[in-house]
Design brief:
Shape: globular
Helix content: 40-55%
Number of strands: 3
Strand content: 5-15%
Oligomer: single chain
């Protein structure tokens, strides 16, 4: 089941509202922008990050290494005008679509993760894989190890998947098996 969970979400360790607040395609740096199709890594520039209050830089970045995701971003955003928004949704529209996705997966309302919970979930996946704590902290833009400890101690032993009804588990497995194919066949 671990591999299925990883396919659903390629380790998102950022705040979802970070992506919603991005100003435009100019905040996305793709391999084609560097004329380097051999290095499939993309970066999102984060202006005014939440962690600014904790002494981190005013401009930070998210690194996207998942090959299917980078190819998807190239296909969808590569040729767009830099002034266009990456995510033209408001926070409430994003939440509505998030709820529709959870409805489609048949996840019971009382067990539904919030978009903010993805950040901690990504940290737990990385921790379970044995990634060094320092790498997880860097990726999450966390300066204090105690902050990461709270994510891991509270959630490492918990598994949302174990609590779900079998119908939801089956749907998640079905959807996750299509992850790479769906990203690869976008217009």
């Amino acid at each position: 089941m671990k591999n299925q969970n990883e396919k659903i979400s390629p380790k998102p360790q950022f705040f979802c509202n970070t992506v919603i607040r991005l100003s435009g395609c100019k905040d996305l740096f793709l391999p084609s922008d560097a004329f380097d199709s051999s290095n499939l890594v993309a970066f999102l520039k984060v202006k005014k990050p939440k962690t600014l209050r904790r002494g981190l830089g005013r401009v930070q970045h998210l690194k996207i290494k998942d090959t299917a995701s980078v190819l998807f971003l190239e296909k969808i955003f590569g040729a767009l005008d830099p002034s266009l928004n990456l995510c033209p949704l408001s926070a409430s529209a994003f939440r509505r679509r998030w709820s529709k996705l959870l409805d489609a997966l048949q996840i019971p309302v009382k067990l539904r993760p919030t978009p903010g919970g993805i950040r901690g979930g990504g940290a737990v996946i990385a921790y379970r894989r044995g990634e060094p704590i320092s790498d997880i902290m860097w990726r999450m833009r966390i300066t204090a190890q105690r902050t990461l400890e709270s994510y891991l101690q509270e959630t490492a032993a918990e598994s949302l998947l174990a609590k779900l009804p079998s119908s939801a588990k089956e749907r998640i497995q079905s959807f996750s098996s299509l992850y790479s194919q769906l990203l690869g066949h976008c217009p």
